[in-house]
Amino acid sequence: MNTKGITAFMDCMIFLVVVMMVISAIVTIHPYDDYFESDPEDFLSRISKTEVRLSDLTDLEDDTLVYLVDVMAYDIHNGSEVRAYLESILNRMFGDHRYLMTYEYEGTVVKIGDMEGFFHLQSSKVIRISTGNSINVTLGL
Question: 96-125: string of b/e by CB count within 10 Å (b at 16+)?
């Protein structure tokens, strides 16, 4: 072998080692950055504490911050964008329609998602809303 061939081979090996070290450093710093594992109970706890601007999800011109569950109850009788909002969140977190979320307020049930039957994980939560009533929310995965 000539010296140019050995030098090129050594340069290639050093480059590969450096690339492997950089990749391993990135993986150890951010091992599962885009993977978020959440169970239904955790998700329901989060939405019970989530605040949104009223004007973002309803036709009202009020920029007051309200709890998401209050808007869900409002949606039952008045209609709003909350179903599409919840569906987009659920799709991002759990995959396209791989869930069934139901919420019930004053005898009316709303379903989001089309997974029916057997659920690997399921959780229900009764959440008090600002009017003093409660909304029953169930999420199955």
Answer: eeebbbebbbeeeebebbeeeeeeeeebeb
Per-residue confidence (pLDDT) for residue 3, from 0 to 100: 72
Please enumerate in sequence order all residues whose Cβ is within 8 A of that of 79, keeping only pairs 6 or more positions apart, or say none: none
Q: Which residues pair with 90 in a beta bridge?
A: none
Taking the domains of the chain in order of start, what are their residue ranges?
1-35, 40-140
User: Torsions phi, psi of 45, nearest 5?
Assistant: -65, -40
- Reference 71, options 16, 59, 88; nearest CA is 59
- CA distance linking residue 85 with residue 56, whole number of Å: 10
Local structure of residue 115 (DSSP, 8 states): -
> What tokens were used for 24?
């391993």
> For 59-74, how does the pLDDT look when each residue is reduced to its tens digit (9 = 90+)?
888 889 999 999 999 9
